[in-house]
Amino acid sequence: MPRHLITSALPYANGPIHFGHVAGAYLPADVYARYLRMKGEQVLYVCGSDEHGVAITLKAEQQGVSYRDYVDRWHGEIKQLFDQFGISFDIWSGTARCPHHAEASRRFFRVLLERGFVFERSEAQWYAESMQRFLPDRYVEGICPQCGFEKARGDECPKCGTWVDAQQLTAPTCTLDGSTPILKQTKHWYLDLPKLQEEGLQDWYQGDDSIRPHGPWKPNVDGYVKAMLKDLQARPITRDLPWGVPVPEELEGSAGKVLYVWFDAPIGYISATMEWAEQKGAPDSWQDWWQGDDTQLVHFIGKDNIAFHVVVFPSMLLGQGKEWNDKSFVLPHNVPANEFYNLQGRKFNTSSGWYIDTESFFQSYSPDSARFYLLLSAPETADAEFTWEGFQNANNSLLADKLGNFASRVIKFNAKRFDGVVPESSGALDDDPQLALADAAFAQIGDRISKFEFKAAAKELMAACDALNQFFDAMAPWKLIKSDDEEDQIQCRNSLERCLAYLELLSRRMAPICPDAAANLREMLGGAIAVPENANQWGAEGVGVSPARLAAGLATGVAQVMFQKIDNDAIEAEVNRLESVVSE
């Protein structure tokens, strides 16, 4: 049985994350992890906050707070949003708080240096004489060499979008004190990606199973990486900063230098696993996950992280050789990167107010409704968007009317006519053609999830609900129960048993997508129907696999409203709030 090592991109502890981030990298990973756990697979879902880097030091200094206090605040707020969405990490850590991270990152650096995959180079960098410090690109503003915008950053012009070489800015100024910096030589270390490409990165990416087999790449990943591999360049992996993982002190010129955030951040997956292993009382067991032949490593990310997870991090892992425990590190089995997820036709922008206030949202709406809609509108192959009208329709027309209403109708009818216990069945409807449509849809859900087709999985869930509603309406048990014909009475009992059995199956198939609602449905069905905790919770699947017949006399629970409907006034208010942001 393979081990499934799942990661989501470490969210940057530099501000709030939004629904777009959740849709891109965290909710899909959570659904995938929940599905595999239900099947009884070995799963470890690792994440944490990315807590180093220029953006953090700049914002903390501007706000006059310590770096630690700054990242602690956002580490907590980000985790709160994940908790509201029900994201089920096995370990949630952070690169500045994990006790293993700094040493693991330095060890990665040392091994790459010793094996000839890191070299040093001197280069000119802006330097603030007034503060006696080098200035990373975001600490410098000036005139854009492309469009002439006067407040272009040292990495990008916010007006024309051009990537900027900080040295090309004219009239540069230090963003901290407004002084004019000078260019001064400084030494940095570079990761030799072209050499690592020859070492095995190219062969692995192209599918050489002798190095490490991987699943098929998504087209948006494949096109991006193939273009990148045609002209791969060395990348700097150190910066002049007061906050971060220090460069090993034994190296000449290392004083005041830290590892570049993009270098140490992915190592955070490994260090967090070390932390998890230590918490479990088996500190060496991290090796089983990161160096085991049976591990399948899957990174869930947005498209802006493709380069780091399909080129840079695999290169870093390859470059370690067998210097750790005389074993090689695993390489990604798949990286199902998503495109961008927007809001009502525009990019999410918390600073301008174009976002969804999460505190207000979860006071008014169901987390499971949000999970379902984010999956249904997921940016799997192209940019997509959250619309309030789309969210309302998914909640009302799909979840409430198709799923919740079916469950309520069946359980209420059974309580009224059969005293809340499973009626005896002759089995005459076990192979009903209408129920075969539900079987076919249910059979696809797990397969879709395993292929990272979460939008399709959500659609199959609704297709199953459609088939079940049609079966219930066609059987019309409310008419059969009033008949004096014994055959009609038998058919009524047969249909109710099948509906209850399919509700039990529905509660399991919807669990990775809508976990709270699934638990609610199981409560409505009663504990006697629940699958034992030590069993394969997902159960048998495949075309034509119908749920087993339920034993007569099992007690069901009480019907509840699974999804509250959202009225038009609430949606109009949400849209008006966004439109007021535009008009300001």
Q: What is the CATH topology assignment of the largest domain?
A: Rossmann fold
Could you tell me the number of beta strands?
A: 16
**Tally of domains:** 2
Strand content: 5-15%
Helix count from the secondary structure assignment? 18
Low confidence ranges: none
For the record, what is the CATH homologous superfamily label of the largest domain?
HUPs
Structural class: alpha/beta
**CATH-defined architecture of the largest domain:** 3-Layer(aba) Sandwich
How much is the average pLDDT?
Answer: 94
Percentage of residues in helical conformation = 40-55%
Strand order of the largest sheet: 3-2-1-13-14
Compute the separation of the termini in Å: 57 Å
* Overall 3D form: elongated
Instruction: Tell me the name of the CATH class of the largest domain.
Output: Alpha Beta
